[in-house]
Records
---
Amino acid sequence: MSDEKPRASNPLINKRKLEARRKFLRSVVLGAAVLGISSVGYIPVARAWNVRMRPPGALEEPDFLSSCIKCGQCVQVCPVAAIKLDDLDQGFGVGVPYIDSRTQACDFSCDAVQCILACPTGALVYKKPTFMPTRSEMVLPAPPILLAKEKSPEPTLNLKERSGLAVLVRPEKCLARQGKGIKGAARGQSFEGTMRFMEVDRWKPIPLRDHPYDLELCDLCVRTCPIKNAISMEIVKENGVEIHSPVVHEACVGCGVCEMVCPPDLAAIVVEARKGWSV
């Protein structure tokens, strides 16, 4: 048996080791925090890749983002509160106006498109300056006729380009294509979106839930569209069977009303931002 006694540990060495361990742990925690913050910062950048639906008359996205001063004037004048301001998690467009058509579409309740009139910088315009590029597929074939003004001396909107285009992205969800109707509120009693209905009040938008329907065949996207000849319900033949289906036409301005009123949980028809018309 050895008579050697274990050497006493050096308090100074132990203290240095403990301090080194603490510094290492602090570095790990700090590095993780920096990485986490960086990742959070990346989320807006990634989301910014997705183009938002902008208010009527918006310039092409790069020009719009460089022109908009985020003053919120367009938000203030919108009669249906369709225009919102992007939050911190929405990319480089923090504070920039956008429209979420599924939640609240622009139904042109203002008639004159007040957001364009209110914009102080030209980010929203009736007609682009000549030096700005115009995509031919965005140009409307004729001044859009607002059905609410159809009988007035000047029934058209002074819009030259569309904001986007309605697309039947989920045909399997479409009630008309299934031969089904709709009874009651289009989006249920909890939905808070509003619209102008000519038969109720020419100027005052009301909640969509307060305007119930009783239709043997759903055609809400057609009957609520504010623009004349933008969408129609037609009989199409698929796999040898004739069915009713909504068909979007070149007059579509991309207002988003069809998307807002579409009854299924996932809308059958949606408006794709900055999408142009292609034959």
Note: Residues 11-48 form the longest helix (38 residues).
---
Amino acid sequence: MEIKPIKNEVDYQQALDRLELIFDATKGTKKGDELEILTILIDKYENENFPIGMPDPIEAIKFRMEQMGMKQKDLAELIGFKSRVSEILNKKRKLTLEMIRKISISLHIPTDILIQEYIVE
């Protein structure tokens, strides 16, 4: 395949089709280099044309807690009282800067996700 910028849906589909054909190419080979370049081009096109917004901060915390097998009491040990955790997870109270720092470090959630605005009910 001739490597060229992906400018439209047709180019995108052709790149995906080619990627599928050479997906198992060995790194450092001609096809491996083509695979690497196609991946970069496809990623760029998808980021520009199919952007994915950042997750809601509270949903990100809940998701990460589930992944880590954490309960509310575990989060309470990190940021304060169990009632406060309940208020935060139910969007009755906002995260403080100190909570954001602790959660970011302990749950490995980027601060740019945690500092986003969200509606408190």
Note: Residues 25 and 32 are 5 Å apart (CA to CA).
---
Amino acid sequence: MNTPASHASAFAQDTQIVHLGRDPDAYHGIVNPPVYHASTFIFNSVAQLLETRRDRASGAFEQFTYGREGTPTTRALEDAVTQLEGGYRAVVTSCGLGAICAALTAFLSTGDHLLIVDSLYGPVRQFCDEFLKKYGVEVTYYDPLIGADIAHLVQPNTKVIYLESPCSLTFEMTDVPAITAVAKARGIRTILDNTWASPLCFKPLAHGVDVSIHAATKYISGHSDLMLGIAVCNEASFIPVKKTASGSGYCGGPDDVYMALRGLRTLGLRIPRHQETATTIAKWLQTRPEVSRVMYPALPDDPGHAIWKRDFTGASGLFGAVLQPCSDTQFAAMLDHLELFRMGYSWGGYESLVVPTYPATLRSARPWQEKGPALRLHAGLEDPDDLIRDLERGFARLAAAA
């Protein structure tokens, strides 16, 4: 069953996930699109070669010219994620950070001003502070709870507003429609990292965002075995992002693209399970005396729950917790011997993960006031009771180390 863009919306989202980006009739009935290992494309005439050059120069990028700019496998993934998010076209890059950097540099030049959320993914902050500022871009970090008041921070040279919702490490919910309304009224581009929600739980472009970013390394992959990024663009944003990504050398490898397509097929099953398990664990953590508070917008008592419920259709398995003050020895005793919540710098795979976080070192506009140590947890696909027992044993070690 081929599901072209013209009528994909007639099907439920779970059906789209299974069928988008596939056309068995075009490949001898093969269910999955082939993996194209290609750097070079052959042209049969000077006229054909010049036609592809004109296509690239115009920014259409409809024809295949060189492996860095994509193959039919790349296009299949781009088309599938684009249709899931209601975009115009997408750009696959080598990783999520690559997609973010390509989108930012597509719209920023020396002398421009960037407004960027204070509680963002750490490597993006590093890119802003060490690269964008170096080349004359003015960067202002804003409070993630600012909403429509962001208008007071807009300058005549503001060209981009960058968002995350919920925010990295601390999971505040940003009022995306309020901010994009301000941006559109002033001709400012908006870019949002939508990795936490995946294409299933939030549709940024429907809420006024120009470019939606995914680290496909995470939920789209679902198996912790690839590096890939995707920028889903509206029509006005596609050509600048595509040209910047191609010109900067941001491209995804063919096998990673294929595995991301394979992972995408089960996204509709995995995300609800991640949410169910995360909700179970988060509620259990709220009962523990060792825990000061849990940060997960899907919880009814979370400060950002009203925005999450208004704009999102679900949640993922990533959330945070702040413990009561304890010693470094106690904190390490809890984490060092966890069996299922292993420590690792990623998330979105089938396995559960935990890392200590230090939000105070990454804040300027909204200082971090919590006294106890913080954790970021990813609820994987293991049995929730086993995960809870793993954390329970961790708390026992924490108490014993006092």
Note: Residues 274 and 309 are 17 Å apart (CA to CA).
---
Amino acid sequence: MKKINNVLSILFIAVLSFTSCQEDDLTFGNIVTPSNIEVSVTYIDNDSESPAPGLGSGEIKLSATANNATAYHFVVQGQTKLQKSGSASHTFTMLGTNTYAVTVVAFGTGGASSSKTIEVDVLALYEPPADLLTMLTSNSSRTWKIASEVNKHFGLGPIGGAEFEYYGAAPGDKANSGMYDDRYTFNIDGTFTHNVGADGFVFGRDPLINELGGSGGTVNGADIEQYTFGSYTAQWVLTAPSGVETLSLTGIGFIGYYVGGNHSYQIFSRSADEMILRTTDGKGEFDWWFRLIPE
């Protein structure tokens, strides 16, 4: 009888497990692949639309639609821009009129995806001034860091508002964040290296920082401190949309505090040994401010 009871118990557990698996399977839902991807290109000069190939800013806005799509990736010049809204901006810097491939990947339910590639002709005429290149790279290579010992070295404010309008960090205020030992090197050949320091930590916005694919970290309000992430190399370019000097980083490149977005930083002010940068986060909530000085 004892053996019979044991057998019945095993069969009962097996039935429960099978039922549980069936219930889990139901949560995946239908897998639907997006279709009919359409992509439009708008050329932007001085915040206004221009006819193709633009008037020389090199800036375009991409808009995509597709049936059954829940999110989009835009792949431009090796950069992947993740956008649920179906729109993204990009600035090209190669002088003259050049043709570029742009790939839009539309994602549906269950991870299904489809893609479409188009070609765009873009005119770029901007050449960075010599003093800006000298400031950024020392005409060879220059390493920068957050000016952690200075008042208002990191902060935020409303989009388009005054610098550090909502908050400006006091000296040493973010000592435990993982930001202060990060170093940002700009080389004259256009390469950018972000050395995260011996601790292997970076600092960013919750949950945007998870775009990096790192791990761990400590949640502190809307921040994630001491997020584990390795050093990396990317590319940098200088442009001047609407006459505003702008520093853009490729891929996931960022400075100071990860906020996603377009990875472009307006150079709000600069001198030979200091620059103040501004960028808008990926949620379109705030402008973020950074004061940098040379190593």
Note: The helical segments are 2-26, 130-137.
